Amino acid sequence: MQLNLVYGTPSLIRALIDSYDKFAQLYALSDLADSNYDASPGYSIPLAREKASKLRSARQRLGVMRYQYLSSLRAVNLVEKDLVEAEWANWLSEEVYRCDRAAHMFSNSSDEVLSEKKESIAKIREYCANCNNVWDSVKERFLEMS
């Protein structure tokens, strides 16, 4: 709908689209390695041929820049992933430490206190067992990498 405001009538828009489609067909815009891109008979005027050559070079430079940026983003994503994993491992080690403190606290508690909080203690034990299992597998993976 915005094209209608800028270019006028729908038939003009259709003509623009048709001409672009024809251009894309003739000059295979996706194939910048084609040496015939700017040497085609469609560019019979030397100035047009020169502009086509400059545009082709500019598109090739953009392709190189796009590749470099994507490679950089991939590297940044890998670094971020490693940082998040390190933060998680640090958090997990703190949880294991808290679980050890809780186990020590439970071992020093009276039977009366333990029986009152039996359900909560069972949940804490299950959670801590899970944390310890995961921590053990993290340590194993770390030792394998060393």
In short, what is this structure?
The protein is mostly helical. Helix content is about 80%, strand content about 0%.
* Number of DSSP-assigned strands: 0
Low-confidence stretches: 1-5
What series of H and E elements makes up the topology? Answer: HHHHH
Share of helix, binned? over 70%
> For the CA atoms, what is the radius of gyration?
33 Å
Number of domains: 1
Strand content: under 5%
Please give the alpha-carbon distance between the first and last residues.
Answer: 61 Å
Summarize the structure in words.
This protein is an all-alpha fold and 146 residues long. The chain has one domain (31-145). The chain is built from five helices and no strands. The protein is elongated and about 95 Å long. The two termini are 61 Å apart.
Task: Detail the topology: elements first, then pairings.
Elements lengths: L1 H6 L2 H18 L18 H62 L3 H6 L1 H28 L1
Helix pairs in contact: 3-5
Keywords:
146 residues; 5 helices; disordered N terminus
